[in-house]
Amino acid sequence: MTNDNLTKLLVFCVLFCAQKTSIVHGSQALETKVALLLHVEPENPKCFAEGMSDLTCFWEEDEERAGSADQYSFIYTYQNENSSECAVTALPAAGGKRLYFCRLSRTQLFVPLDIRVFRDDLLIHNRSLFIEVVFLLDPPSNLTLTSTGTQGQLKASWLPPSLKYMGDSMMYEVSYAMAGSHIGKVEEVQASSELILRGLQSGTKYKVRIRAKLDGISYSGYWSAWTDPVLMETIPGDLDPLIVSLSLIISLVLTLLSLIVLMSHRRFLLKKIWPIIPTPESKFQGLFKVYGGDFQEWLGHSTGGLWLRPAYFYSEEFPAPLEVLSEVSLGPALPSSALPPKASEALGEEEDEDKKLKRVDSALMEGWRETPQEHWLMDQLQSIHQHPAPRTQSSLLESHDAYVTLNSQNHSGEEPLDDILEETLPLQVLFASGRTSSESRSDLGSLQQSSGSGRLSSQSSFEYPNHTWPPKGSGYTYMAVADSGVSMDYSPMSSSKIDDIGKGVIYTNEYKNEIPAHRRPIGTPIHFAF
Amino acid sequence: MLLEWTKPGLSNPLRPICDLRVLKHFIEEARDAEAAMLACKEGRGLPEPVTVPQTKVDFNVWERKNALEQAQEVQSGLWLLNQAIGSLRATVTNTALHSHIDNSLRNIFSIGQVLRSLNIQEYTPPAGGVAGGEETWRVSSASELLQVHVNFLRGKVHLLLSNTPVCHQGSS
């Protein structure tokens, strides 16, 4: 007996607890629905059907004016039927209100229902409705979110309310938003129990909730309450290929543009980064390229340069212009010596102060002839030295000495230049060592003046083998020059004019070489006729 | 498809029409007729009460009935409606209402065709021409009649069509 009692007690307790839980749960749901309908439904009493054969109606009253539940009577009448009454219950509500409920457990659909509420025989509410259009369902259950495997997508699935015959009329609304954000999107789906959410951000947590509603031609109702939100994170995203490709293209385009700009300003940039070292090559044509920087060589071949003339070099290198030869006998005509061609050239090209000298020099050149035999010359000079002729004017003229006449006339043409070449040696030595050229030149210059004609010409006595020394006129002055081959002795000059004979020497400058004595083996004078 | 089974006198078996959108269309047209009747002030009263089927559905009761009973209930109700609306037409003078009434009659006929495609037995009126029974009642106004028409289609007819085993066999 005790065991049976205990068992019964246990069963009772379990059932009670379960019922209490369900009641608590049910009351919570009821509160939500009531709150919903209070917002949505304007008519009174507010009625809703939760299932296929039930109906819950309620109305609200202020606490102050509210009466007890038994004061109210809820009368309902189906079409073509007798009226029935529903028991009214009261429940306290928030905000100083009271709720009065009536619940019908067996209902008829597709038939009009009249509801009247009386409070102490006073009609307070009156309403006619169809039950199949006031459905207020529970929210869908078992809302789950799964990943579809594709980026930016989530799949939401749920369990539809278990209502027969009403599946095709069921409509759902899915609300999804990023976790923490209040701005969300809503999607409606009809007669389905799952939905794929697209266009979501990768690697983001989303909050999803759902509500249901009957929305068909036969059945209809209010939106249910939202389910509790379910959170789910989308799969992390890879680099969007479109973005990657676009960024690559943009970088390529920018690189190309920069390259083009660099290439167009290449020279400018090079000048700035790597400036060119200035070279004087433009001013000296071919100095570096042809002659490798050898300035002297370049000068030799250069056609340009106003201030560079080889004349300067040659004028310094080469001796003074005069060359004297002597001949004693009437032997083969001694070719007149010739001035060194270079000197003549130099003379010919001289333009400075010694212009007069230049002319003299050229005159001298023309009178000379070549002397092929130097031995013979030396002998002649010796003989002259040993037998000096009396220095008389006439004897001078008629002597066998070699005479050199300086013609004051400029001979045209320059053909003797070549002849002059080989006789350069004696005179060269003389003039190179003596360095009295400046003296001689000046003297010669004065000579020129004294001659009066302004010109001097030279002639060798070899030209006149028969002592037919033609008097050249009054303008001639002559001097005796003794050339030993090594040295030369100049006797004072005397004029060729017979008139002037005895008048003395016109020009008494003495040309004396400053050659050391050992170099003057023979001091035979060479007569220099002017 | 609609034209195919609206043709009278077709003897060849019809394909089952399981799409409930057809019925939805009929229901909406019936609603339009009811609304038009309510708007019209004249001719609202019937010369004599007509028998109309009961539209109420108690699911507990409905589910206890078998398919045959359900079918019979629907078919007889449709026949009654057909009779009642037919008689209404004679009393109404408004041309706009005439079109609505004609439409309703056409739709009732079409529903009959749909039921036939679903192998639902046709109703044969009892002998005597007067169909009585627990599932009927009498109305005396045209608006009530048309309202019954709408509710009948929304209720019983819809339930029957949405639960035919023929249609469910194909989908499930």
From TrEMBL, chain A:
**Disulfide pattern:** C47-C57, C86-C102
**Location of this chain's protein in the cell:** Cell membrane
Q: Would the keyword DNA damage turn up in this protein's UniProt record?
A: no
Q: Which Gene3D superfamilies match?
A: Immunoglobulins
Q: Residue span of the signal peptide, if any?
A: 1-29
**Record-linked CDD domains:** FN3
Q: Which InterPro entries match?
A: Erythropoietin_rcpt, FN3_dom, FN3_sf, Growth/epo_recpt_lig-bind, Ig-like_fold
Q: Which Gene Ontology cellular-component terms appear in the entry?
A: external side of plasma membrane
Q: Where is this region: Disordered?
A: 337-356, 434-467
Topology in the lipid bilayer: Single-pass type I membrane protein
Q: Which UniProt keywords apply?
A: Cell membrane, Disulfide bond, Glycoprotein, Membrane, Receptor, Signal, Transmembrane, Transmembrane helix
* Protein name stated in the entry: Erythropoietin receptor
Q: Which organism is it from?
A: Hucho hucho
Q: What is the lineage of its organism?
A: Eukaryota, Metazoa, Chordata, Craniata, Vertebrata
TrEMBL record, chain B:
Checking PANTHER family in the record gives: ERYTHROPOIETIN (PTHR10370:SF0)
User: Which Gene Ontology molecular function entries are recorded, alphabetically?
Assistant: cytokine activity; erythropoietin receptor binding; hormone activity
Does this entry carry the keyword Methyltransferase?
A: no
Q: Name one GO cellular component term.
A: extracellular space
- Compartment(s) of residence: Secreted
Organism name: Hucho hucho
Query: What keywords are annotated for this sequence in UniProt?
Result: Disulfide bond, Erythrocyte maturation, Hormone, Secreted, Signal
The record's comment on protein family reads: Belongs to the EPO/TPO family.
Kindly give the Pfam families that the UniProt entry links to this protein: EPO_TPO
Task: List the cysteine pairs that form cystine.
Answer: C18-C167
Q: Which residues form a coiled coil?
A: none
Q: Which SUPFAM superfamilies match?
A: 4-helical cytokines
Q: Does the keyword DNA repair apply?
A: no
Q: Which GO terms describe its biological process?
A: erythrocyte maturation; nucleate erythrocyte development
This chain's protein is named: Erythropoietin
